[in-house]
């Protein structure tokens, strides 16, 4: 405990005399200090004894035992007039101010300084003016107190206490009637006054979140009526705050500084998005029983994009336009979640990061950059925009590709562009699969950047993926890849390109199959066939399903060509005039053994 400056309680017992010989002790053996220049906040549940303690410190009740000192002087024994000049009190009781105006009530605060005549001098008027300004009560000064709202009256009473120019300011629940903004403002004001006027400010409140954010020092009455004191963070870290305020439904969350609702069967969630949104997102999910985790796998995953959300659970992505849709989804998913969780879970962020690192080391076609913070948004085109704008953006890209290839045939440029694009997306996704993660590169969260002469840049705002696919037998990973790669990317890309030039669908799906096979070939070469067995099985399954079925045949690992196409990618019609490794036009013996452009 610090020196004699400020308030100090020693072995203090507070309570009530309920009869000539009977006393009701409320709090006993209290030891605490509240320094000058600091805001000290008294916290505790209902009936803990906060008001009783404040009233005792204020000299309105005698202590039952022990001492209360101010700057070393015994407060209860101090003559009332002197005490009134040193200590100002704002209690919860309503004041009957009759017909007084707010200014007149505030002027009463000067009473301890004016003597029995009560005449205000220039210095008193200055103190009243300063107090009105400090409490921001100027607009209320001319109004009758009886006509003020509870919050307005609170402001005027604070001004009256300040007009008293005390060393100690005691306030019992000063924010009780104030709206949220005014409460923050009032506590901020009291903290500033403590600093500027070297005041000792002690107040009680039930606004735990605000108190812990603004208090310099906390007095906390626990459930056993013991007084714990310390810096707010200290009491949170000790678990003292949780011990007092946690209930079966609510738990104090030290990270957010607020309460989290405890659900009955709590599932876990990942949240992503702009820094300003993720705390709100975490709060919305926790209200519906989800525990937000930053590492490890999770049952669900929500990414904030623009004013909406991508919400994922059980291998499905749902687009939610706003907060109320999110609330409905979070509630519904929580109700439907099986007790043991879904077999498909969101992969741990660290596993996804490992996947992306490992993929990038294979080659440029496998790399996915992540996050938007350090990206220059100008050069990046969101994929869902490319897929939906009817070909407006891609028409220009097709033209540029045609010029670079030395062809004026749109269909050739479209085919080469689409083959490269399919390879660009299939490569990192198949690489993820080799590590047991099905990457989830949602078109709303992924953008592409053209870098002529090299692999186009691919960037995902919040890369994530599905894990747990190994626990599912059969076709689960192929189903997921079918949705996340074929349905979400390859099909819309083909549709939009065919609006630019009506290239045969069979040819374009042949390109997509060829891109999958090309990526598989790179993985088998780099990682070996044992590590890529699962990937091969999934590619085989995908090639057996529409729309890829019938596009060609996959050969055994190491066999050239790995994929025998049934359509031609038209690459031979470019100025380079090359043939690809999967070429349908050449006899097998004349096919190049090395992978040629445009494959990865
Ligand atoms: N005049 C009184 N005589 C006897 N007991 C009282 C008196 N006033 C309050 N008490 C009792 O003292 C205890 C503490 O009450 P107090 O008002 O100090 O608690 P509090 O922490 O301020 O509660 P709240 O947060 O609900 O305002 C309660 O059990 C209350 O019933």
From TrEMBL:
User: What are the alphabetically sorted keywords of the record?
Assistant: ATP-binding, Nucleotide-binding, Translocase, Transport
**What is the name listed in the Swiss-Prot or TrEMBL entry for this protein?**
ABC transporter domain-containing protein
Q: Where is the signal peptide?
A: none
Which PANTHER family does the entry link to?
A: HEMIN IMPORT ATP-BINDING PROTEIN HMUV
Please verify whether the record's keywords include ATP-binding: yes
InterPro entries referenced in this protein's UniProt entry, alphabetically = AAA+_ATPase, ABC_transporter-like_ATP-bd, FhuF_C, IucA/IucC-like_C, P-loop_NTPase
Q: Name one Pfam family in it.
A: FhuF
